Amino acid sequence: MKAGSRLERLLERGEFAVTAEIGPPKGAGSKGVRNNASLLKDAVDAMNITDNQTAVVRLCSMAGAVHVLQCGGEPVMQITCRDRNRIAIQSDVLGAASLGIKNILCLTGDHQSFGNHPGARNVFDLDSIQLIAILKGMRDDKKFQCGEEMKVEPRLFIGCAENPFADPFEFRVARLQKKAAAGADFVQTQAVFDLERFEQFMAEVRKQGLHEKIAILAGVIPVKSSGALKYMSTVPGLMIPDYLLKRMKEAANPEQEGVTLCVELIEKLRRVEGVRGVHIMAVYWESMVPTIVERAGLMPRPRVEVEQAG
Amino acid sequence: MAGTAEFTPKIVAFCCYFCAYSAADLAGSMRLQYPSTVRVIEVPCSGKVDPLMLLEAFLAGADGVYVAGCMEGDCHFLRGNFRAKKRVLATKRLLDEIGFGGDRLEMFNLSGSMGPRFAEIAHEMTERIKKLGPSPLRRAGVSSGALTAAGQPGKEGEQA
Amino acid sequence: MIVAERKPMADIKDMLAGRKNVLIVGCSECVTVCQAGGEKEVAVMAAALRLMRETDGDPIAVETETVTRQCDPEYLEPLQKKVAACDCILSMGCGVGVQFLAEKFTATWVVPALNTRFAGGTVEAGVWEERCGLCGECVLHLTGGICPVIRCSKSLLNGPCGGSQGGKCEVGKGEIKCAWQLIYDRLKGLGRLDLLLQPMPPKDWSRAKDGGPRRTAREDAQL
């Protein structure tokens, strides 16, 4: 057991895991995060708190993770390489572990030009692969990136992201391999809409035996409207097949259709060999997650005993 | 400050040998009237003109300047008139930036057989400059360098 | 070359406010190539300044000189006389040139006519693009000759990130090519994709810009 988190234990046991995402507020209020945490804690095994997603300043992931813990949920803290250098990152990891945060997701991070402070100087001291390796080194070798030893190592379950729909397509599996080799324990993929392409990706993953080295959680996004799905088809890294765009456009009740679509995708993804869980990114629609999990036949979530923070 | 009725502009026209200057010649032999305000300077190609030349014309006291080259696609040197176009544009922007006025500079295209068009352009530019008034240099009370022989102001009514 | 571009004339006008005798100094190297501060540009600047100031009724006397390069004090020596006769130097060299002029002629006001932007090359006539980040630890042998520090918007050493689509970077609305797609294609063509399977460790950024001015020396070149 690397960290003994709920997510880790369930995956160890071979259960199909369910995780979700919470988008923290653009303000200092904790109510929103805490409400969502309470809402989701029995519907999912762990919940991510995003880290200044799309380079927009929001309540930080670590604080959000603490709120989740206090509400009885299990957090997945996210760290991007955009805003912090290796010193700040390693420091935050120590702090997080000391607060009882066990799951940490390592990301490159969206460029600052996407956010509300485009003139900010970015950091990118590290990239996601180097970040994963550093966390692994801290946990398993009890060493900082500089080689110095530490007395009390952070106990972490290390996550990463991968986008099976980005280019170069032929290199995506190799990149996931690099992350697994660097020490990632689990991966949450970018949202799957194009099942065919995802299955191509998974076929290659299985060929490399990668599905046994790292726990793959397929991402899904429930859409509220046809407009939302149309917008997503313009976002780099997301692939939306035409038939889905058509379905949403012709839906009598778009919200309901969006949920149905999501549930159907989850059911199909469960049947793909090598997929060990699902990651539901219903950002700012967190209230819909319990419904989705229920309709996908994944309720109730399995119980598990979790160690308390050291 | 708009030009007064007595303001007679001094305009310099850089004309390419193959088209614009031929058109000027033709206008002359057709006895077409065009303002004596325009002083024609022959260049082998409009592409010979560069920003410095244009700025120096203004420094010498021109109220307006234009470059006349062949029709686009017909330049004798193939792309000289395209280069001229870009340079004129860049210089117009610079003139705007320094508050002198990019409107005082223009690029025109015509073919060697277009005598009437040559006259038309001369009239057009003259009217435009009359409306814009004398060069900011003149307004500032700076005595302009002569555009004819050393120091002597050019006699009105003379053609280029 | 170091690529620079002219500051707006309004800014240059402010810098020269109150000055009566300006010496415009050009440079025959980088800024000549990127057509920002060579002999031609110096002449145009001189004409533009005279027009601008005469129009304002506040004429300025302009002297010009384009030196071999401004970043070598020996080439600035011959400027002594002209410098003594002016009350301000307008350098049309890169930031390095401006500073060397200021260091040499300490009693004279030195101002920059250009904004120095990057180290790059000519991609087509009249267009220059950044290529080198001056990071002090070149890894071009590992990336097929394509710089991940500068050409990747996030300076990733183990790219691409998830935003690479159709060979384009997620930043820049499609104008920026994904460096890692370029690297992948190049290494594939050279039969060296194996290089991409080796993770690159965190960069030693202490070799790059920071911590005061960097310095390099050759003992055998010192007198």
Outline the structure in words.
The complex is a heterotrimer of chains A (310), B (160) and C (223). Helices cover 39% and strands 15% of the residues of chain A. Chain A is α/β, with parallel strands linked by helices. Chain A starts with 5 loop residues before the first helix and ends in a 15-residue tail after the last helix. Chain B has 160 residues and is an alpha/beta fold. Chain B has helices at residues 20-29, 51-59, 80-97, 115-132, 136-139; strands spanning 11-16, 38-43, 64-69, 105-109. In chain B, strand 3 (64-69), helix 3 (80-97) and strand 4 (105-109) form a beta-alpha-beta unit. Chain B has one domain (11-136): Rossmann fold, CATH 3.40.50. Chain B is globular and about 40 Å long. Chain B has a 4-stranded parallel sheet, sandwiched between helices. Chain C is an alpha/beta fold and 223 residues long. A 4-stranded parallel sheet of chain C has the order 3-2-4-5, with helices on both faces. Chain C has a 3-stranded antiparallel sheet with strand order 1-6-7. In chain C, strand 4, helix 6 (95-104) and strand 5 (110-112) form a beta-alpha-beta unit. Chains in contact: A-C, B-C. Chain A binds chain C through residues 81-82, 86, 108-111, 113-114, 122, 124-130, 133-134, 145, 161-163, 166-168, 171, 174-175, 177-178, 181-182, 190, 236-237, and chain C through 153-168, 170-172, 178, 180-181, 184-185, 196-197, 199-203, 205.
